[in-house]
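User: I'm putting together notes for a lab meeting next week and I want to include a structural view of one of the chains we've been expressing. I don't have a solved structure, so I'd like a prediction I can at least talk through. The sequence is below, exactly as it appears in our construct file.
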Amino acid sequence: LNEGVVWAESDLYLKGESNIVNQFGGVIYANNASLESTGTIINGSLRPYRIETKVLPLYQARAGTITYTTGTFDKLPEDPEGSYQVPVESYSAKILTNNLEIVSGSLKNINPYFIVHTESVNTTPSYLDDELSEQVFISADQNLTLVVSNELINSSAIIEANSGKLVVDAGNIKNERYRIQVNQAPGTFTEDDLCIGIVNCTVEAAEEQFVYFTSPAGKILSGRDAIFKSSGTLLNDLSFIEIWGDLHVEIPEVIQYGFKLQASVVVIETTNHSRSVCEAKVLGKCLSSYTKHWSVSTPDLNQLETGQLPALLSVEGYLFGEGAGNFEVTTLQVDYQ
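Assistant: Thanks for the context. Below is the predicted structure for the 337-residue chain, given as structure tokens.
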């Protein structure tokens, strides 16, 4: 367990009999480094606090109705009964080398940074702090090799090989955000937004989806070529994979998810009508008449895109793929009924 600084001017070799954990301000720095464990190597932390003793809620009541959730946070088990949450000064965890090899049963690179929006928000990046978004990383200036028997999770953190090759060989590879929650609440659209060019128009903004909890995107980056191998799945969930060289993929199934935020809005256009009605006729001639007026209101239900939680797989060079399953890129959405 490291929460301080491990510094080697030349080579560093760390072997854990069970787990290796670098968290809460921990820094590992070396020219060439090798980290090995048959258990789990964790850079960062699963939770944004220490667990000590009685459960206290981290946040109070949520606004609106929950529509969609994803990310590492919602998969965590509840804190142990009789425990309480102790704040920490820093979530940062940094492994910085020239060349790095990590061999482990599982690898978790997790930045437990998220914010809660007290107002309806349909975009996320401008609300996140840049420094806190980049406080957890595994970085090699040249070559980075990750060999993981089971699952590699990169959650709102950064894995990068700046000027060399990136090799990721894992049972499953998951690149995701730490915490995302989309809620829905009464909408905020008005006639000024949707009635342009329409006479006698009113708007009933029924429901609108907005981001309530948000975290930065996970990032897997290579300044040159990269190789991804897996016997299972590569999942890029609302996150970014950017390769500035060639990418060779040997994975049965590749899945990438983005999410589209929507609003359910009823636009009502009212048209006015009139016609002359004869009250009295004699020999086919109208002796007395009046004008009848009426209105017809036509409601039109619209599902409007209001924002996105994007995902990106970008390859500057060639993309080579081998696999027997699917290569799926999907924008998820929750429609209003």
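A couple of points you could mention at the meeting. Residues 130-133 form the longest helix (4 residues). The chain has a mean pLDDT of 83.

User: Perfect, that's what I needed.
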